[in-house]
Design brief:
The complex is a heterodimer of chains A (178) and B (494). Chain A has 178 residues and is mostly helical. Chain A has 5 helices and no strands. Chain A has 2 domains: 21-92; 97-177, no CATH class. Chain A has helices at residues 21-44, 60-82, 99-135, 141-161, 170-177. Chain B has one domain (2-493). Chain B has 23 helices and 2 strands. A two-stranded antiparallel ribbon of chain B has the order 1-2.
Amino acid sequence: MENSEQIFVESSESQCGRWNPNSILGGVFSILALCFLYYVVPTHIELPYHMQHPLLSPQFLPQLAGWMVLVLSLLLMIDGLLKPPKREAADEYRRGVPVLRQVLMLVAGILYAVFFEQLGAIGSGVLATALLFLASGLRSVWVYALVIVFPVVVTLLFIHVLNVPLPAGTLWESLSLI
Amino acid sequence: MENFSEVMALFLSVDNFLAIAAGVLVGVVVGAIPGLTATMAVALALPFTFSMEPVTAILLLVGIYKGGMYGGSITAILIRTPGSPASACTLLDGYPMAQQGNAKKALKTALYSSVVADMISNLALIFFASYLAKIALNFGPPEYFWLICFSLTIIVSVSGSSVIKGLIAASLGIILSTVGLDAVYGTQRLTFDNYNLMDRISFIPLLIGLFAIPEIIDFYMTRVAPHVRTAVAGASLSWKEFKGMLKTVVRGSFIGVIIGAIPGTGATTAAFISYSEAKRTSPRKDNFGKGEPEGVAAAEAGNNGVAGATLIPLLSLGIPGDVITAIILGAFMIHGLTPGPVLFQENLTLVYALFCGIMISSFVLVFVGNAAIRYFSIIADIPKTILLPIVLMFCIYGAYAVNNSTFDIGLMLAFGVLGFVFNRTGMAAAPFLIGFILGPMFEDNLRRTMLISKGDLSIFFRGPITWVFVLLTVASLAFAIRRYWVTRKEEALA
């Protein structure tokens, strides 16, 4: 619904095989639902010593939702096996994407997730933005000037205008102490 | 009189006017950029509201919502890419008009129809929300339990192409909503002994992860699609021409208001009903679908008539009518407010200050919309290669700002991957969010009811209000099942 980027592409629609997104998704969710119901719920939801009614149990809603996932996933799997869906026109754009483009995006994500506090908001912003610009194959020098401008401006906006504190970077702090 | 002066004191601040103007502007700009959506903009703007006053914060988000609705129509008309599903109907006549060299007329028709519909919708909100809230004061936990059951049926309408996948997504949302300490017994639920999860999963990282990150991942996992450019050309819309369409616009607005007030039916349904009604009654019905301005007016009136009306169930009952109002509900909670009848009792001044701001936002839309028509090519030509890394930066900073924790960044990225998988497998993220929001409300009211009745289940059918909601829930489910079978049959025939 939200993926409105899809441009209307003229292409012939073809049918998927038996192992299509629906049957695979249904199968995967069925297994996950079984694990959830028979392992995760009993071991990771603590029950109180005394309970007035089973409907008050902390396990009730997770179990109800887990069973719904299981039943619906099985239905989805059967539906996928019996009636494979049509291949999407947008699939065409998903083939032949350079690996480097995807790897650089992944590295940028990891950089933010793991080194945000060490490098600080500006440091991680500069590095990740540079990686993402490289991933898009941008060549112009003035564009790379934005790599520094944007993180600095956005960080200052958060800290001084919106009063939201962001990390300065523990790495730089320890380096300055040395 | 005392209340009036309190409302004015709360509303008449520079911050509120700036928030409305900025909100509408951001909404229109984001909506007009192909690939970015109003939902994404509202989700991204949420962390910005932390330090704002509640009225200012909500007005900013409402402004983005309204601006985004119109912005989505710009791309539908000019490049045949609807910015939101509701704009898909505008495309039917808007794009042919643009192809015929009447893009400017189509955009102006869409703008003025949107503004008129928006005003009618706002008036409906002001008149009906307080009455509904008064009725809702008589609701107890059993009534609320059934109301939430009825609201959960909205999942079907936001499920996209597959109801089964939508229901799976909603169930997953419900499961994740139970993470944290149990509200009644205080025992741990699905926390895996991680203290970051004790206080439930943070709403903002989930929201940004589901609605902003997947677009970014998708961009880097896809070959770049060809950029489509269309100039805003042709004659403008005259007052005489618009006057001729006014009947259609008003009718469409009322259709939008009625549909918007029912949780889950949504702007898309309203736009298509308004369009088909205009086509049925128009003397130029043969021209519909070939570039008929009245078609654009009808679609936009239906679409925007929903905007104010979806806030009726949100403000008076605390029930989100669609995805964006679900995000706005989250914004209320972040600012320590709970929408519903109690809001009208305890924060009436705030509610009326909001109403004032919402009315003003319609006027702001006229100016911003006209500017967007003039400068559309500049907005639409911002390369995504530059834009998306900045959007990612906003996502990361916004997620971190919630608890000053990198855990939330990881959580947001994890939800981003989940949202990306959802997109690729045809699962909609909206039911997941609705499940996540309504899950705890469902459980809370179920448990309160059981505690009041000491386990007696007959309390669930204790009076006419409960029965009304039971019937509404059953009817909504029956309608959904019927729609499911009709769609299946149509697919089989195709």
